[in-house]
């Protein structure tokens, strides 16, 4: 069985040991793969692993041995899932792997914008020269008591909402699967 990982550099910069995948077949890895290289690199593969590389109907047609496509992401938007289904190819993803990291990143951005840390840091070396040892030229605000709107209440949206509640925010949301409203 041949396993082709088309864009391993999207997951790591050399620190990740991919050798356990070799227990399941011959592993061929590429740090990146261009659209022009995709079909050729997938030829003969039984399993394709992709994070960002598009796996199209044409790629699948050029890979008659293909049985499985694994997305190294929570989504599978880079894979023509209808084509895979019609060919009996299993498509898998890694749902939930980044929920807390993404929620943390969202909150680091929200807090940076609310507290203007991205602006204040640029001038912190000047603070000793200011009469009040800081500057008040950037309006900051507390998030407590504010309303946070969230579009999409999957695992990530819910994690962001949970953190917002801890900050004392009102949370309103919209999701394709629920009615709009407060949480």
Overview of this protein structure:
The chain has helices at residues 35-42, 57-61, 81-86, 99-115, 117-123, 155-166, and strands at residues 2-5, 26-29, 47-50, 68-71, 90-92, 147-151, 170-175, 178-182. The chain is α/β, with parallel strands linked by helices. It folds into 2 domains: 2-92, Rossmann fold; 99-182, Rossmann fold. Strands 2-1-3-4-5 form a 5-stranded parallel β-sheet. Strands 6-7-8 form a 3-stranded mixed β-sheet, covered by helices on one side. α4 (99-115) packs across α6. The mean pLDDT is 92.
Concise summary:
The protein has two domains: 2-92, Rossmann fold, CATH 3.40.50.720; 99-182, 3-Layer(aba) Sandwich (Rossmann fold), CATH 3.40.50.720.
Q: What is the strand arrangement across the widest sheet?
A: 2-1-3-4-5
* Shape field: elongated
Rg from Cα: 23 Å
User: What does the largest sheet look like?
Assistant: 5 strands, parallel
Helix and strand content put the structural class at alpha/beta
Q: What is the second-level CATH architecture of the largest domain?
A: 3-Layer(aba) Sandwich
H and E string = EEHEHEHEHHEHEE
**What is the CATH third-level topology name of the largest domain?**
Rossmann fold
Distance between the termini: 48 Å
Number of helices: 6
Strand content: 15-25%
Overall pLDDT confidence: 92
Oligomer: single chain
Number of domains: 2
- Low-confidence regions: none
CATH superfamily descriptor of the largest domain: NAD(P)-binding Rossmann-like Domain
Number of strands: 8
């Amino acid at each position: 069985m041949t396993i082709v990982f088309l864009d391993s550099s999207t997951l790591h910069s050399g620190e990740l040991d991919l050798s356990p995948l070799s227990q399941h077949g011959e592993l061929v890895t590429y740090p990146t793969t261009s659209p022009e290289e995709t079909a050729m690199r997938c030829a003969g593969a039984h399993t394709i692993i992709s994070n960002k590389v598009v796996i199209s109907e044409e790629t699948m047609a050029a890979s008659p041995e293909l049985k499985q496509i694994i997305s190294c992401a929570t989504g599978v938007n880079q894979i023509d899932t209808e084509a895979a289904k019609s060919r009996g190819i299993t498509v898998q993803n890694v749902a939930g792997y980044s929920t807390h990291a993404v929620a943390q990143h969202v909150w680091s951005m929200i807090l940076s914008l609310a507290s203007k840390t991205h602006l204040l840091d640029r001038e912190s070396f000047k603070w000793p020269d200011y009469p009040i040892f800081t500057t008040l030229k950037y309006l900051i605000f507390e998030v407590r008591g504010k309303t946070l709107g969230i579009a999409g209440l999957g695992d990530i949206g819910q994690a962001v909402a949970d953190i917002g509640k801890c900050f004392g925010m009102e949370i309103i949301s919209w999701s394709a699967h629920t009615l709009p409203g407060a949480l």
